[in-house]
Amino acid sequence: MPCYMENQVKIQMLTLDVDMFGVQSKVHPTLIWDQTGATLVDAGFPGQFEQLMQAVTKAGVPFTQIKRVIITHQDWDHIGTVPAIALASNEVKIYAHSNEKPYLEGAIPYLKMTPEKIAVRVQSLPEAMRAKAAAIFESIPTFSIDQVLADGDKLPFHEIEIIHTPGHTPGHVCLYVKSHRLLIAGDQLRIENDCLVGPAEMYTPDMPTALQSLKKLVAYDIEHVICYHGGMYGPKASIRIAELANT
């Protein structure tokens, strides 16, 4: 996918390959940069740091230029490389919604990754995979949040507006880049069979609230959407978002 070049703010959807317990998939962090430095939105699974670093470099941005990481929400596939990024890029700041902060900082267990839920998931795997899986789950990090986000925040870089879209997690956020008419959707929207769909019910503890959050997106002029699971959707994404919000 080519990067967006207009208005000085540049945006590149990254693609990381995932082999999770024998299941192949992809996830899509987003890289945004301008004269203020670079911002990474979401950070892949534990163990994906080298792949992430290669993707950023391929986009033409030195990894040391990453000044900020914005976490859309607490799920492990979005936070796995944050400590490694902090070590590799000097003075990087971590941003997340205030409702996600106590989870990310380890004050309370991750909503979908309590010790009990991890034990059940490990036991559900073939015996040959269990030891490796347990080690992966043990590597899910916690880390300090430098800046908390709130609904409607307009960040002083990249023309980003924060949209709080709870339901998938309490502090899930989407990012709207007005100059590009682009929504970075986290897990609020996905692409399945080339179609834009809402959050996955299986992984969304509060589905009624998540569906209500969809209605907030109708107010925005959105041409394209970057979905963490599925990639790029568009043009005329607002039409499909309105359909989802009204069904």
User: Strands across the major sheet, in which order?
Assistant: 1-4-5-6-7-8
Please give the share of residues in helix.
Answer: 25-40%
- Tally the helices: 8
The N- to C-terminal Cα distance equals 31 Å
Rg (C-alpha, Å): 17 Å
Number of strands: 15
Mean model confidence by pLDDT = 93
Task: Explain the overall architecture.
The protein has helices at residues 49-58, 76-79, 82-88, 101-104, 115-123, 127-138, 207-217, 237-245, and strands at 10-13, 16-20, 23-27, 30-34, 37-41, 66-70, 93-97, 147-149, 160-164, 173-177, 182-184, 190-192, 195-197, 224-227, 231-233. With 247 residues, the chain is of the alpha/beta class. The strands form four sheets. The chain has a six-stranded mixed sheet, covered by helices on one side. It has a five-stranded mixed sheet with strand order 9-10-11-14-15, with helices on one face. Strands 2-3 form a two-stranded antiparallel sheet.
Task: Tag the structure with descriptive keywords.
alpha/beta, 6-stranded mixed β-sheet, 8 helices, 15 strands
Brief write-up:
Helix content is 27%, strand content 26%. It is an alpha/beta fold.
